[in-house]
């Protein structure tokens, strides 16, 4: 008696069928990789890559005045001029580096502390999370205006509060030397929550086992943080530094909102981004502004490359 | 591991300080927006003042803010929808076919300083007589939205198992059919995250509108500067304007808090 040992499906629905449809549909499916990616890539190429290449070209010309004016190719003359400019360019570089360095350091340390406080669940957690989200999504220009009132030397809340402790009024944003630190404070207020959220996501994804093992081995709270939590969290810390660093280098909105054009009358808060904006749209000095932008761009790429390199080293 | 009692007390106090530090300035802004300028200049009336809505009447009627709110909404909405249409399929392709170099080109846009694009854009669009129109404003905001959406959606698709798509192919769907009927419905949370974040960033964007918007297409962050004069500042009006700009986006963000947080932390814990 012969029996079928293997079940054979006879229903036509269950069998793989070749894709049907028109020639267009077959072509579209075969080329879906580029069909899907091409519109976005075209947009990026036309609106981003070409302008960047153009900026590179403009930096080699003496274009200024009107966008329609004739310009001449002058080679690397702009670069020589800019790199020798100790009046506006180098102070702007210094301010950019100082601004980014200080806000990154404070935001990461403060962000880490707050993230560790929020790590384990507790009552009222929801309200803390709301408070952390609000500065993050607030419009930076409006935030700048808000702090402008708080830091106003005559009517601001900041000096009023100092008065309660018997401390004299400070110039804050109006002072030639206090303006940049004050803008750093504003940036720290708005963006520390971003670091908190990123680090908290990292902490939540860590497994409990190394912690428990360290606890059994008698490690103190600090030892557990220093030798267990921090090394495991390091890749996330670098992501936070990377994301915040890019934005901190390019800070524009709060500087423009608090000090206006050119970073104030003495260029107190003129970073590279503010300087390049001023050269382009206040002075219409397109050649020099493009040169500053290309140098700025190279600095950003360099910093990013170094950080990514460091992160890869940690993951190995 | 239940924390010890002293630690819990310390944590409570520390977090209270954090919450007050983050919220108080915002409340201060809102309080000032309900004061007359005379009261703002009087430090005795810091906490006790008779509230007035004159500043808001001023902002919404005289300063034309109703129109600017409409402009901001339209630009953010259009830039987000167009970026989703371009970005979601592109992110899918880049994730499934491992197009890391193409992805890098798109993501470079997050790194490039916006000013370096503004000069060429201004040049081209002023020759086309498009500066001051909505089209160029929406395109410029897509420069922020598209890379953001591609970044978030690539991470999302990377984490989406391919088995369901493969099953759909076996059942006779085409590749594009499987993307449309299986992957897209599964991606709704990711698309919501990307869309919400793109809307927030576009609403808050200042620099592009500063250069490219005209009197009729001004967005809210640019319109704030109407209250900053050369000689004096209308503080009450300025604070009301700042509140009108930023309060709606904060309220929206609270309602969709989960999505905002997952978008902001996308890619933070892997790769």
UniProtKB/TrEMBL annotation, chain A:
Extent of Polar residues compositional bias: 1-12
The keyword Transport appears for this protein: yes
Family: Belongs to the binding-protein-dependent transport system permease family.
Protein name (Swiss-Prot/TrEMBL): Sugar ABC transporter permease
Origin species: Micromonospora globbae
Location in or out of the cell: Cell membrane
Keyword annotations: Cell membrane, Membrane, Transmembrane, Transmembrane helix, Transport
Transmembrane segments: 34-54, 92-118, 130-151, 188-207, 228-246, 286-307
Main localization, broad class: membrane
Domain of life, source organism: Bacteria
Any matching Pfam family: BPD_transp_1
From TrEMBL, chain B:
Record domain ABC transmembrane type-1: where: 69-256
Membrane spanning residue stretches: 12-31, 73-92, 104-124, 130-154, 190-215, 235-256
Topological category with respect to the lipid bilayer: Multi-pass membrane protein
Pfam families associated with the record: BPD_transp_1 (PF00528)
Superkingdom classification of source: Bacteria
GO biological process, one term: transmembrane transport
A GO cellular-component term linked to this record: plasma membrane
Keywords for this protein: Cell membrane, Membrane, Transmembrane, Transmembrane helix, Transport
Localization annotation: Cell membrane
Similarity comment: Belongs to the binding-protein-dependent transport system permease family.
PANTHER family tied to this protein: INNER MEMBRANE ABC TRANSPORTER PERMEASE PROTEIN YCJP (PTHR32243:SF18), MALTOSE TRANSPORT SYSTEM PERMEASE-RELATED (PTHR32243)
Protein name: Carbohydrate ABC transporter permease
Species: Micromonospora globbae
């Amino acid at each position: 008696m012969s029996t079928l040992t293997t079940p054979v499906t006879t229903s036509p629905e269950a069998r793989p069928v070749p894709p049907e449809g028109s020639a267009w549909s077959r072509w579209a499916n075969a080329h879906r990789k580029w069909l899907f990616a091409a519109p976005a890539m075209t947009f990026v190429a036309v609106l981003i890559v070409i302008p960047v290449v153009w900026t590179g070209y403009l930096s080699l010309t003496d274009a200024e005045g009107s966008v329609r004016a004739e310009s001449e190719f002058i080679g690397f003359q702009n670069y020589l001029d800019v790199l020798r400019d100790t009046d506006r360019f180098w102070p702007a570089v210094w301010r950019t580096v100082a601004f980014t360095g200080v806000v990154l350091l404070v935001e990461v340390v403060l962000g880490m502390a707050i993230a560790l406080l929020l790590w384990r669940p507790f009552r009222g957690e929801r309200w803390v999370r709301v408070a952390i989200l609000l500065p993050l999504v607030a419009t930076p220009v409006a935030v700048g205006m808000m702090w402008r009132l708080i830091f106003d030397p005559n009517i601001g809340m900041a000096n009023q509060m100092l008065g309660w402790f018997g401390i004299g009024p400070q110039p804050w944003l109006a002072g030639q030397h206090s303006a940049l630190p004050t803008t750093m404070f504003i940036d720290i207020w708005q963006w520390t929550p971003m670091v908190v959220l990123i680090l908290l996501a990292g902490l939540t994804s860590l497994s409990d086992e190394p912690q428990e093992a360290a606890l059994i081995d008698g490690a103190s709270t600090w030892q557990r943080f220093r030798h267990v939590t921090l090394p495991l969290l390091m890749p996330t810390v670098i992501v936070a530094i990377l994301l915040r660093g890019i934005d901190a280098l390019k800070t524009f909105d709060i500087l423009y909102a608090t000090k206006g054009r050119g970073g104030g009358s003495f260029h107190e808060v003129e970073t590279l981004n503010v300087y390049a904006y001023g050269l382009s749209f206040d002075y219409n000095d397109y050649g020099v502004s493009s040169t500053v932008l290309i140098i700025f761009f190279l600095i950003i790429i360099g910093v990013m490359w170094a950080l990514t390199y460091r992160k890869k080293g940690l993951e190995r | 591991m239940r924390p010890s009692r002293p630690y819990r007390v310390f944590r409570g106090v520390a977090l209270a300080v954090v919450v007050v530090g983050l919220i108080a300035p915002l409340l201060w802004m809102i309080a000032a927006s309900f004061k007359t300028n005379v009261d703002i200049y009087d430090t005795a009336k810091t906490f006790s003042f008779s509230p007035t809505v004159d500043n808001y009447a001023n902002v919404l009627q005289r300063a034309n803010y109703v129109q600017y709110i409409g402009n901001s909404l339209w630009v953010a909405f259009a830039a987000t929808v167009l970026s989703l249409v371009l970005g979601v399929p592109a992110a899918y392709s880049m994730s499934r076919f491992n197009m890391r170099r193409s992805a890098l080109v798109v993501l470079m846009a997050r790194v490039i300083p916006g000013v370096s694009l503004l000069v060429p854009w201004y040049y081209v669009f002023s020759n086309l007589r498009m500066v001051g129109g909505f089209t160029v404003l929406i395109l410029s905001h897509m420069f922020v939205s598209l890379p953001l959406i591609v970044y978030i959606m690539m991470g999302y698709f990377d984490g989406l198992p391919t088995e369901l798509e493969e099953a759909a192919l076996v059942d006779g769907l085409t590749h594009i059919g499987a993307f449309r009927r299986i992957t897209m419905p599964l991606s709704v949370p990711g698309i919501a995250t990307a869309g919400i974040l793109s809307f927030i960033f576009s609403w808050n964007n200042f620099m592009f509108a500063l250069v490219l918007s005209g009197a009729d297409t001004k967005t809210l962050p640019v319109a704030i500067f109407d209250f900053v004069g050369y000689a004096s500042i209308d503080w009450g009006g300025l604070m009301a304007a700042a509140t009108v700009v930023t309060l709606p986006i904060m309220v929206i963000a609270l309602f969709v808090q989960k999505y905002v947080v997952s978008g902001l932390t996308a890619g933070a814990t892997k790769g």
